């Protein structure tokens, strides 16, 4: 026996003949399980999958199908996301939730339940009406009691001449998804939602979403990058630096991440390290004026005045009509004019700490959701070095893209 997962419309279309064969053979088939109705319904949904049961691993013919939809919930108190499974053919009807060839109902139900226990979800609802479907009862009883609890309620059906529907909710005892991970079909949605919360300044709940995505897919680069940004926005630049370095260990040529690393080093006053970072970036992108300007500023802050002046002067050696380069070039000339009468940085009067905000632009992953902008803190530099503003490309930002009534959750539409 084997279970295959069908998760794309093109795969669903390929099994149409097989589906219709089972549908016509099943005495409990009903319109909500017909291929035509489901094809139309699934075309309007993003998070769904179908379990296909077969008796032989080498045979591509299936003998049972269980169509399911995933709904994502967010707890209003903790901000954590969880997933609910809905049987499309059973919801609001009490009818059988899956198709099956006669005589294989129990085997298919056991196989479906066993597979679903390996998936990530918090709850699954069964609707039952009289007379109850034997296969639906078998599927309900096939789920183990240990990690799961059951609760029941009755509600009236819309049709006056029909009896009530008995609803049974299977739910994890922890209130979190099985395996403490998101359902992989909701990862994109949760990431987008976390990005939106981040942009709204709700950093704690955004962090919870990012971490759930990373726990589910440790290699999710966008989520790890966004989490590093979040720490910068929160002012924890040491943690942001740690996260950026972790990304660079995997993506050593990701220059936008390296740029962000340099920014966090500047934020912490690690100007020597920041100058090394920007020197590497200038070597890769000699025509990007903002990188050259930041290299010169960090060298000046690190006490390497002569080298910094040489970098400021090097703008005249780069031929570029890029607007940001031209603005940086003009700013470099202004710095040089002000440095002329000064013998050294040590002779300047002590300057007050000032926060300078930069305009966010630049795409790392090709999306367009705004993110809160961090600011730079310089304790040893004169304010005029960064005033009135640096060019618009000064900061590289990530731009994203991707319930139950008895718990305090918000139902999120997909």
From TrEMBL:
Start-end of each TPR repeat: 255-288
InterPro entries: TPR-like_helical_dom_sf, TPR_rpt
Superkingdom of the source species: Bacteria
Pfam family for this entry, one: TPR_19
PANTHER family the record matches: CELL DIVISION CYCLE 16,23,27 (PTHR12558), CELL DIVISION CYCLE PROTEIN 27 HOMOLOG (PTHR12558:SF13)
Designated name of the protein: Tetratricopeptide repeat protein
Keywords from the named record: TPR repeat
